[in-house]
Specification:
Blueprint lengths: L12 H17 L7 E4 L6 E3 L3 H6 L1 H11 L8 H10 L5 E3 L1 H8 L5 E5 L3 H10 L6 E4 L3 H7 L11 E5 L8 H15 L4 E8 L4 H12 L4 E6 L11 E7 L3 H4 L23
Parallel strand pairs: 1-4, 1-6, 4-5, 6-7
Antiparallel strand pairs: 2-3, 7-9, 8-9
The protein binds S-adenosylmethionine.
The site of S-adenosylmethionine (SAM) has 20 residues, from helix 7.
Length: 273
C-alpha cells in the first residue's frame, strides 16, 4: 500500500519549482489555438490546506511558498502566481496541486486525464473535478493507464502535455522511469512531457537522468538547488526533465536561482542549472 501523502509536502520549494515550470509549459502550449490534452500519471488530491496539521508538521510550505511570497522572491509575472491567485480566491491558505493549476490555465475545449492510485487521495480529487466535463479522473496506476490510452483517439486533442510526478517511494522507481518515458514517447511522439525528480544526497536521480538522456537526445533539464548535497538532511534540490518544449518557454531570464532560495540557504552551484 502506498504511504506517501503529498499533504506533508504541498507548497514546498520543490512543489513551487515544479509548479512554476508546469505553468510556464501550459502558458506556452495554450498560445496555440488548437485544443490540447493534459495528462497526469501521479495527480495527488489536487488541493491542499497549508494550515493542516500535516503541512504544519514538516514546515515545508512555511519554508517554501510562504517564504517566497513574503520575501517577494517570485517574479510577479510568473504564470504560476496568476494560477495560484485564481485558485485561492479569498482563501490564501489553500494551495493548488498540479491538476488544479492545469485546470485554471486550460481552456474549455482542452481535456484533462488524471490518474491517482491512492483511494483517499483519489476520492478528494474526484470530488474536486466532479462538475468538470472536460476532465476524467481515474483511480488506477497512471503508469499503466496512460500508455493504454495513447495515442489519443478520435475526439481527443492530438497535442498535449504529460506530467509525471511520482512519489519515488517504491523500490525500482528510478530504474523503471526511463523505459516508461521511452514507451510514452513511442506511443505519442507529438506529446510534450515533464518528469519531476527529487535531488537527495544519495544522488539516485543522476543515473536515472543519464538513462533517460541516452534514449532521447532532445531532453532538457531544469534544476533548482537550495543546499549543498552533503549538508542536506532531505532534498537539496528539485529537478525536472522535459521534452517537446523549448528551453525558452521554460526558462525566461526572469527566473533566477536566488528567487527560489529561502532565506539563509546556500547558493548551490549556478552552473548546474
Ligand atoms: C508527488 S504526489 C503528486 C503531487 C501532484 N502531482 C502535485 O504536484 O500536486 C504523488 C502521488 O502519486 C500517487 N501515486 C503513487 N504511485 C502511483 C501510481 N503508480 N499511479 C497513480 N498514482 C500514484 C501517490 O498516491 C501521490 O498522491
Amino acid at each position: 500500500m502506498l504511504s506517501y501523502q503529498h499533504m506533508y509536502h504541498a507548497g514546498s520549494l520543490a512543489d513551487v519549482h515544479k509548479h512554476i515550470l508546469l505553468a510556464r509549459a501550459l502558458t506556452h502550449m495554450t498560445r496555440d489555438s488548437s485544443p490540447m490534452l493534459y495528462a497526469e500519471t501521479h495527480s495527488g488530491r489536487g488541493r491542499y490546506n497549508l494550515d493542516a496539521p500535516e503541512a504544519q508538521k514538516t514546515g515545508e510550505a512555511a519554508a517554501g511558498i510562504d517564504t517566497l511570497l513574503r520575501d517577494k522572491r517570485l517574479d510577479p509575472d510568473e504564470p504560476f502566481l496568476t494560477a495560484l491567485r485564481r485558485f485561492q480566491g479569498q482563501n490564501k491558505r489553500l494551495y493548488p496541486g498540479s491538476p488544479s493549476i492545469a485546470a485554471k490555465m486550460l481552456r474549455r475545449e482542452d481535456m484533462l486525464w488524471l490518474w491517482e492510485l491512492h483511494p483517499r487521495e483519489h476520492a478528494v480529487l474526484q470530488r474536486l473535478f466532479a462538475r468538470e466535463r472536460r476532465t476524467q479522473v481515474f483511480n488506477a496506476d497512471g503508469t499503466l493507464g496512460l500508455p493504454m490510452r495513447l495515442p489519443p483517439k478520435a475526439a481527443t486533442p492530438k497535442r498535449g502535455l504529460i506530467l509525471i510526478d511520482p512519489s519515488y517511494e517504491l523500490k525500482g522507481e528510478y530504474e523503471t522511469l526511463p523505459s516508461f518515458i521511452r514507451r510514452l514517447r513511442q506511443r505519442w511522439p507529438q506529446g510534450a512531457g515533464m518528469l519531476w525528480y527529487p535531488m537527495l544526497p544519495a544522488l539516485r536521480h543522476e543515473a536515472m537522468v543519464a538513462a533517460i538522456r541516452d534514449n532521447h537526445n532532445d531532453l532538457q533539464q531544469h534544476e533548482a538547488i537550495w543546499s549543498e548535497p552533503y549538508a542536506a538532511r532531505g532534498l537539496y534540490g528539485s529537478g525536472v526533465v522535459y521534452w517537446g518544449l523549448s528551453v525558452k518557454a521554460m526558462s525566461p531570464p526572469t527566473f533566477t536561482i536566488p528567487s527560489l532560495l529561502h532565506s539563509g540557504a546556500s547558493l548551490g552551484d549556478p552552473a548546474s542549472l
